[in-house]
Amino acid sequence: MKKMTRSYSEAIRNIKNAILKSRYRAASLANKELLSLYYGIGKYVSENSRKGTWGTSTIETISEKLQHELPGLRGFSASNIKNMRMFYEEWEKLYSNRQPVAGDLAILPKDIDVQALTSNRQPLAGDLTVEQINLFLSIGFTHHCEIIAKVKSFEERIFYIEHCAIDFWSKETLRYNLKSNLFAKQGKLPNNFKTTISDNDLQQKAIMSFKDEYLLDFINIESPDEEPDERVLESEIVNNIRKFIMSLGKDFSFIGNQYRLTVEEQEYFIDLLFFNRQLQSLIAIELKKGAFKPEYLGKMNFYLSALDDLVRLPHENPSIGIILCKSQNKKIVEYAVRDMTKPMGVATYKTAKNLPPEYRNVLPDAERLKELL
Fold this sequence. Notes:
Elements: H1 2-23, H2 30-49, H3 58-69, H4 78-92, H5 130-138, H6 141-150, H7 154-167, H8 171-179, H9 182-185, H10 193-196, H11 200-208, E1 213-216, H12 230-239, H13 241-248, E2 252-263, E3 266-276, E4 281-287, H14 295-310, E5 320-325, H15 330-338, E6 344-351, H16 366-372
Parallel strand pairs: 1-6, 4-5, 5-6
Antiparallel strand pairs: 2-3, 3-4
Helix pairs in contact: 1-2, 1-3, 2-4, 3-4, 5-7, 6-7, 6-8, 12-13
């Protein structure tokens, strides 16, 4: 019992000293210091808890004692200390099977520095680049925990880390994109951008701006026998436009629904019209309740021609069209878009009733969304 008490005391003292030392760091390095602190604590806890040195309730006891010795301490619940252990164990895999390098993450209570992870040695497969390290250090611990818990491959983790850092994703946005599997879907939209957009940079931006499938889990229409009518689908999207924009991704601004075009005294209406700041293009979206049909593209080609002549401003790039339908055969889409003159693509959607229970209600409710925005 005395030995176990000494073990608790030593662990508490080491973690307490590390916490206090970390608090005195410069404010500009706060997030880096927290991640470094959590990584070091995670390593300390891992090495003691995984080898049988500590009992089964040791982490809970340490958490309680820390709260007592450092009143008001936040972020050191038993579950969060276990998250620190997970944080260390998952990322430690990158640095196994090699000799330690000065500046690497170190065990407590020494100083911990994550800035030099790739310095003074040849890079290894799976290493973080200097730029990736900076992005890694710029996002919060809760974001890291979400990514680690849901994603296993190195490339996919880096994908979400980079987006969190560059696009300033909230935790809710990250959760949505993890659930909608953005990594697998972004840039996979069947399209004709390579033949209709001459600028290579704009071409790549357009490809990466769209997904081949959109998760519309805010739409929950009781229609067991068939898909909802396009107008019903459109109404649900407009009523939840902020959530729909979140599903589209960054830089989309909503212009309107049933957007009217007048050509030779005849009126035509585009289901949804957006503008994308990064692409500097109008984005026309047509909604279809069933499977994709090639004839949908002829109408979209007409809409895009009219938008370019009548609505597009001189400094803007050509308009882009997206057919959003319930299902598609990619080979049929490939043939259908091949000889179209305007840039367009075909994506599918899933509504709440098409999702497993654990995938539903991924986005925050209306009140929470108002707080976030």
